[in-house]
Amino acid sequence: xxxxxxxxxxxxxxxxxxxxxxxxxxxxxxxxxxxxxxxxxxxxxxxxxxxxxxxxxxxxxxxxxxxxxxxxxxxxxxxxxxxxxxxxxxxxxxxxxxxxxxxxxxxxxxxxxxxxxxxxxxxxx
Amino acid sequence: xxxxxxxxxxxxxxxxxxxxxxxxxxxxxxxxxxxxxxxxxxxxxxxxxxxxxxxxxxxxxxxxxxxxxxxxxxxxxxxxxxxxxxxxxxxxxxxxxxxxxxxxxxxxxxxxxxxxxxxxxxxxxxxxxxxxxxxxxxxxxxxxxxxxxxxxxxxxxxxxxxxxxxxxxxxxxxxxxxxxxxxxxxxxxxxxxxxxxxxxxxxxxxxxxxxxxxxxxxxxxxxxxxxxxxxxxxxxxxxxxxxxxxxxxxxxxxxxxxxxxxxxxxxxxxxxxxxxxxxxxxxxxxxxxxxxxxxxxxxxxxxxxxxxxxxxxxxxxxxxxxxxxxxxxxxxxxxxxxxxxxxxxx
Lengths: 125, 346
Description:
Chain A has 125 residues and is α+β, with helices and mostly antiparallel strands. Helices cover 16% and strands 34% of the residues of chain A. Chain A has helices at residues 28-34, 88-91, 116-124; strands at residues 7-8, 13-18, 21-26, 37-40, 48-49, 54-60, 64-68, 73-78, 100-103. Chain A starts with 6 loop residues before the first strand and ends with a helix. The mean pLDDT of chain A is 94. In chain B, helix 1 crosses helix 6 (209-218). Chain B has helices at 22-31, 51-58, 106-115, 140-148, 192-201, 209-218, 251-260, and strands at residues 6-10, 13-18, 34-37, 42-47, 70-77, 83-91, 96-101, 122-125, 130-136, 160-165, 168-173, 182-188, 205-207, 265-271, 282-285, 288-299, 304-311, 321-325, 330-335. Chain B is globular. The longest helix of chain B is centred in the N-terminal third of the chain and has 10 residues, at 22-31. Chain B has 346 residues and is of the alpha+beta class. The A-B interface holds A 35-36, 38-39, 41, 57, 59, 61-62, 64, 86-87, 90 and B 17-18, 21-24, 210, 214, 273-276, 297-298, 300, 305, 326, 328-329.
């Protein structure tokens, strides 16, 4: 079930904007392709990123994958729970498995993202 | 695939990497019981009065003294001592032997065996006619005994037994590739699906190649194409205990390298972190390239990452600190005693 209040990238990141803060994670599709997540890199806090820049990287038993910023902004926070429980990305990718929070986001970048329906089509193809 | 297995191409076979998840499957084998579909592996039968002598030439371990209903691990070596494959040889009745080899090396092995047998030895590649399921984990003795109606608690490690069960003939050996107590069940290929289903009904967790790799790595078991290849002999692979045969192809080369000393040695390393090194990553010592990673992974039972690398012999001693450049980060690894997990009863 793809949550309705999120926006998506073609690279399987999701973003939720609330009160000027944006929370970013990877989708259920992405976590199932990755397999059991074993490590999440701590991103450079307070650094600025442009849409499409590498935010951080995630490792699973079988592979490593870069996570890209859906929008431009400043990296404010990383989910502290992921340090000892990276598997939250697998078990709760849209909730407790959130990866990063961004502030000072460029709202215009949101227009380039996919709606839930568009993302559903994207992963079907 | 109906069971939700995620299938990949493994040397030409379609095999599942995982069913539910690698870590869950790994833990099921360490704590309970799991099953692996290993039908893709090579299986060869050699029969006749000259079969034993032929296998003594072909395999590095002592085949001369292998008693009936026992099996043994060894290598096919070429004349330079390079490892062509790692195999297990079974003595089924002194004039009938089974050799079990890797999947990707099936044709290579068949050609190699055919080239080195005497006219009185009959040789058959039964890889497609027979199948194999591995049942592994501390509960496996209880489960397999109930399933096949035979008391396997009396079967010793590396022993085997021919039985009639589920309406078919089976060969079962107490052996495996996980470091846990376990069994390899050989039967007619046509019966394998039924055998798989009854194992699942009895509570065995379906396990794929992903868990097979994390389990064998934690137990420090080498993998052909990674730790083992034609580019190394049993000396570099720190496996000369499997090369104790009296007179096998490659013995002279192995002895020469043992005398002169190998140029590299296989070392196991542990990284105190969850980030993993991978096959092919360069190993550095004092900033200079000093080796290459052959296998690396997160180890679910340990909660950190481990791996193998071929390094200069002086760096292979326990306690040496190495750096591994994964391309994403430079990780610190320490050479440790093997196996990585504590030795289990088998």
